[in-house]
């Protein structure tokens, strides 16, 4: 049987590095709250059957916007946890209570803070991994020269960038593998889903992306994201 595709958007963070009172997923970006762009990208894919947004239980922002254009695919679950990994794991378990997700169906976990994912990047991820044993993630080979520092911002040495990639999202794994992997590593500082899968001894595939799929982390990233969104292609 063909596996189905689902999207899961963890959006229960507070955006502490952004330094804004409003969680960054709701900051205005190209005329919409930032999370709108991630929601739209996943919901617009004809191959993705359902999209789950994972909010903090106390979220007071989501309801201020009209999401009815995505009503046929979108489900909102208020079960975010203390870490990204916990939010994803809680979301996976809760999603299954209301939707028929199979053990081997694919889940694409995508950060609300990556608003610039293109249709091409999303399609490439699904194309390259649809028959994969493990799954994988969008990533970019490191382009800059890498310096390791001492404690006073002095260069200790230059690191080789050979075989080094920057991990992005979406990260795409089968439902049962993701639940197992995140369940084992729940309490640790793992900042992505692939890391949890790697901890099981598996080797996720790196699918070539590019820098336009940036993550908004610091205030200056907002202007970059706006630029990418307004100049697609
Ligand atoms: N996230 C989440 N639950 C958490 C922490 C993060 O769902 N407990 C989500 C964020 O909302 C974001 C994604 O995971 O969509 C990536 O996390 P990150 O960019 O680190 O966002 P924040 O944790 O909100 O930001 P910061 O680390 O600066 O506080
Ligand atoms: Mg964080």
The strand count comes to 11
Which residues sit in consecutive blocks of at least 5 with pLDDT less than 50? Answer: none
Largest sheet: 7 strands, mixed
Summing up helix and strand content along with how strands pair, one would put the structural category as alpha/beta
**What coarse outline follows from CA principal-axis ratios?**
globular
Span of the ends, CA to CA = 35 Å
SSE sequence, one letter per element: EEEHEEHEHEEEEHHEH
Portion in beta strands: 15-25%
Give average pLDDT, whole number: 96
Ligand roster: cytidine-5'-triphosphate, magnesium ion
Contiguous helical run count:
6
Q: Strands of the biggest beta sheet: in what spatial order?
A: 5-4-1-6-10-7-11
Quaternary status? single chain
Share of helix, binned: 25-40%
Radius of gyration: 18 Å
Key descriptive features of the protein:
233 residues; 6 helices; globular; two-stranded antiparallel ribbon; binds magnesium ion; seven-stranded mixed β-sheet; alpha/beta; binds cytidine-5'-triphosphate
Describe the structure in your own words.
- The chain has 233 residues and is an alpha/beta fold.
- 27% of the residues lie in helices and 24% in strands.
- A seven-stranded mixed beta sheet has the order 5-4-1-6-10-7-11, with helices on both faces. Strands 2-3 form a two-stranded antiparallel ribbon. A two-stranded antiparallel ribbon has the order 8-9.
- A hairpin with a 2-residue loop joins strand 2 (28-29) and strand 3 (32-33).
- Helix 2 packs across helix 4.
- The two termini are 35 Å apart.
- Residues 10-18, 24-25, 54, 80-84, 87, 111-113, 215, 217 line the site of cytidine-5'-triphosphate.
